[in-house]
Design goal:
By secondary structure, the chain is mainly alpha-helical. It has one domain. Helices cover 69% and strands 1% of the residues. Strands 1-2 form a two-stranded antiparallel ribbon. Helix 5 crosses helix 6 and helix 8 packs antiparallel against helix 9. It starts with a helix and ends with a helix.
């Protein structure tokens, strides 16, 4: 009996090891694509800087923009170059993956035009809707339900599935655009979300999704070298611009839609929200704030979370670190929840509680800023002004 038990135990252990190796193998295969994307994006970021000055792709201080000097806005173009070369040079992307790349070309072109000519909000909104519709019809990705949010069964969307999917894509595009207000914020939040998508894709064997996410992760990692709030990169400081922030939001929307489809892994939409909490929080509060004030949801203002934290005395470095740590913690919880089949009602309630905690933190930051280390405080706060 003991011999039989030991043999069974060894057999099961060997099977478990083989299963884990099978899950890790796709993840290991995408590493070359990530490295290639990283190197290509770094090269393009350096090469495009002189081009930016010639064609006027520079961000000038003034109004809500408080940075010093003219900064090249070529991060989005460089990231897209890295993504495109690495993804197309990898394995088969599948129909949905190829649709994402093709439609993202229009997303980047639109963003670059907006960076250069500051397109009217209505034009941008129409273009974002067009891009979302193009992705849905070319890929066939549709959100048919929200899952069992309240514990009474799945919340189906029925005839509203198509418009909900289109609006969700546009919403995530604009969520990352809203987040791109200080150095490192959109890039770090996007990097963490892409990492989460990679892990889930690897665990589920979604090779095409994994390849695109890994390629974009390498591109974003390269961009952050030029954009993180540190003195070391000031000579080569670069912004991603609308071309980069909208590309990041669009790709994360497309990748999430791919994973949500029943034909892939049927990932719960709640897991997606946990992977990128701060962009979702920002989108919801900004939309509600503007509607309450009688403004269009697309109207720019200075009421974003990072604006409030700066006003309360936090430094850009501290805000970037805060966003990154919250994103990592939330994304790690999403992966844990996915692996352990945590119920959707629990995820929904937990997400609402985290949202409430985030609002309390942001609204009351001024009460604990002076107790933080000096690098976390804005210069005028440290000097007592």
């Amino acid at each position: 009996m003991c011999f039989r038990l030991s043999v069974t135990f060894r057999h099961r252990s060997r099977v478990d090891v083989q299963q884990q190796q099978g899950k890790l193998l796709p993840f290991m295969q995408v590493i070359p694509a990530s490295i290639a994307s990283f190197l290509i994006s770094c090269t393009m970021l350096l090469a495009l800087r002189p081009f930016a000055q010639v064609v006027g792709l520079v961000d000038k201080p003034g109004g809500r923009k408080t940075h010093h000097g003219e900064v090249p806005v070529v991060g989005g173009l460089a990231m897209f170059a890295g993504l495109l070369v690495a993804a197309l040079g990898g394995a088969d992307l599948g129909h949905g993956g190829m649709s994402m790349l093709v439609v993202s070309v229009f997303m980047v072109v639109l963003g670059a035009l907006d960076d250069r000519f500051n397109l009217p909000p209505k034009v941008r909104l129409f273009a974002h809707l067009s891009v979302a519709v193009a992705l849905v019809y070319s890929s066939g990705f549709v959100v048919h339900g929200l899952g069992d949010l309240f514990g009474f069964g799945d919340v189906g969307l029925g005839v509203m599935a198509l418009p909900f999917t289109v609006v969700s894509i546009v919403a995530l595009i604009n969520a990352f655009n809203m987040l791109d207000g200080l150095d490192g914020l959109a890039g770090s939040a996007g990097l963490v979300a892409l990492g989460g998508v990679m892990v889930v894709s690897s665990l589920s064997g979604s090779a095409g999704t994994l390849l695109i996410a890994g390629s974009m992760l390498g591109a974003v990692g390269a961009f952050l070298i030029f954009n993180l709030p540190t003195r070391l990169n000031r000579p080569v400081r670069t912004f991603m611009g609308d071309a980069g922030s909208t590309l990041l939001g669009f790709l994360l929307a497309g990748l999430s839609l791919s994973l949500v489809q029943p034909t892939t892994i049927g990932l719960s939409p709640m897991i997606v929200l946990w992977m990128m909490p701060i962009p979702v929080f920002e989108l919801f509060t900004s939309t509600v704030r503007r509607l309450v004030r009688g403004l269009p949801p697309t109207q720019a203002d200075s009421g974003h979370f990072h604006h409030l934290l700066v006003a309360d005395g936090l430094s850009v470095r501290a805000i970037c670190a805060l966003y990154f740590l919250v994103s990592v913690a939330s994304c790690a919880l999403s992966i844990w929840a996915y692996q352990n089949d945590v119920g959707e009602p629990t995820l929904f309630v937990g997400f609402c509680l985290v949202f409430g905690g985030w609002l309390l933190l942001v609204r009351n930051a001024k009460w604990f800023v002076r107790a933080l280390p000096t690098w976390c405080q804005r210069a005028d706060v440290k000097s007592g002004h």
